[in-house]
Amino acid sequence: MDQQHQLSKTSVALHWIVALFIIGLSIVGLVMSKKEIWFLYPIHKSIGTLIFALILIRVVWRVRQAWPKPIRQYARYEQVLSKIVHWTLITGTVLMPISGMLMSGVGGHGIALFGWELVAEHHSPTQPDQALPYSVFWAGVGESGHEIIAYILIAAIVLHIAGALKHHIMDRDATLRRMLGQDVSEQ
Ligand code: HEM
Ligand code: HEM
After folding, report:
1. Which CATH architecture has domain 9-179?
2. Would the CB of 8 count as within 6 Å of ligand 1?
3. Domain limits of the chain?
4. Where do the Cytochrome b561 bacterial/Ni-hydrogenase domain residues begin and end (predicted)?
5. Whose CA is nearest to atom 32 of ligand 2?
6. pLDDT tens per residue, the chain (187 residues)?
7. Could you tell me the distance, in angstroms and rounded to a whole number, from the CA of residue 176 to the centre of ligand 2?
8. 144: which of 2, 55, 134, 172 is 20 to 30 A away, CA to CA?
């Protein structure tokens, strides 16, 4: 159970594992699509699909535990900003894998977990090297969604890290140390 002076091991572990994968997948996603590094696509898709399971567990855990209570009374603007950023982060982490699977699965490119096929590729009979979308509309929604949500999520992550560093370095409070698993009841 999360407590105001100490977060549970589950909350801490889920936060950092999902955070590292989201940051890693965002960097790989941007690099592979801008530089057209094709061998990274199946790796990005496999890890993104697998991490979706952990993301769902994290969301259920967070809903059951409620948000961690602030360690002290923050300024009103900080409370509002951190609520908006936390909601954007958690919603973005759910929507990124969903939009990615929509783009790849419905787009005819297929989804596989390191070679183990989940959704078959779908090819045009006349141009066998071209993927044929099952639905052009939904594949487009997935593709645009994945890109737009990626930029919103990356902006939220930058704000979030800046906020965590502000608490740690400028305010010198225990917000970051609590997320690192420490008991901060004495501070
Ligand atoms: C779990 C979290 C995920 C994150 C944070 C993430 C992040 C990103 C980012 C930042 C990009 C570059 C922006 C763009 O072109 O859309 C990207 C591209 C891409 N992602 Fe993901 N992704 C995730 C999951 C997935 C999944 C599950 C799939 C498919 C099964 C997928 C398939 C793709 C593909 C195919 C591209 C290249 C799009 C293009 O070339 O235009 N992603 N991803
Ligand atoms: C180096 C990167 C990161 C640092 C230093 C960091 C730090 C923190 C800290 C200190 C808190 C506690 C805030 C509080 O007590 O009010 C927190 C909470 C949170 N962080 Fe991060 N974080 C990082 C990356 C991420 C990423 C990449 C995501 C998601 C995409 C994320 C999502 C969240 C969410 C949703 C919360 C709310 C509490 C929870 O659900 O566990 N964080 N983070």
Report:
1. Up-down Bundle (1.20)
2. no
3. 9-179
4. 9-181
5. 89
6. 889 899 999 999 999 999 999 999 999 999 999 999 999 999 999 999 999 999 999 999 999 999 999 888 888 999 999 999 999 999 999 999 999 999 999 999 999 999 999 999 999 889 888 999 999 999 999 999 999 999 999 999 999 999 999 999 999 999 999 999 999 986 5
7. 9
8. 55
